[in-house]
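Helix-turn-helix transcriptional regulator (Pseudomonas benzenivorans), 113 aa
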Amino acid sequence: MSTPTPGQPVRGSSTGRPIMALLDLLGRRWTLRILWELNQAPASFRELQSRCEGLSPSVLNTRLGELRENRLLENGEQGYQLSPLGRELIEQCLPLAQWADGWAARLVEQNGH
């Protein structure tokens, strides 16, 4: 499977509209988890694999390549880190994370736990 690129056909879209390319990239196994972990702090390959329990080295290597190719992460002094574009993407995801926290709280409240 090739790296999703805006303007090129991607999973679910023959046109490769930018939003479809982004959804294809973010929908790949472990991609969002890797970005989320790097939002917490930069990490070496081994540390990132440890934080993403159950992630195989080959999948991690593939995802890191895709994220680097799409300029969402970069290598820094402390290992892999979000690039400015990656940080901007995570900022756009924060309202979704806040919504998820409220959703979880309402479910717990409704279920009486």
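The chain has a mean pLDDT of 93. The two ends are 43 Å apart (CA to CA). ok done for today
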